[in-house]
Amino acid sequence: MIARTPEPPYYAVIFTSLRSDTEQDYAATAERMLELAREQPGFLGVESARGADGLGITVSYWRDEASIRAWRVQAEHREAQRRGRTDWYRAFRTRVAHVERDYGLE
Prior knowledge:
By secondary structure, the protein is an alpha+beta fold. The chain has helices at about 25-40, 65-70, 75-90, and strands spanning about 10-20, 45-50, 55-60, 90-100. The chain starts with 9 loop residues before the first strand and ends in a 7-residue tail after the last strand.
């Protein structure tokens, strides 16, 4: 589903990853992170896709940089990040972007 974001400006955190072969706890943790993100002040929405080749892109939208920083250091999220580095991802990249324009077809 396409996230319904407010009028810009706001921020996007783009998480691109290549999965490893380890599945243990991944799906449950991903679901928990989505629940937890939705509870965070400043969270605006999320979009995610993963290809058959294991390449995934998740874009989360945030009101401001302070909200992004607070999410980055949230305790359960920190543990998920650790598991991502050690178990679930072969490679990943996180990018933070300032959204200045937003338009499309409803």
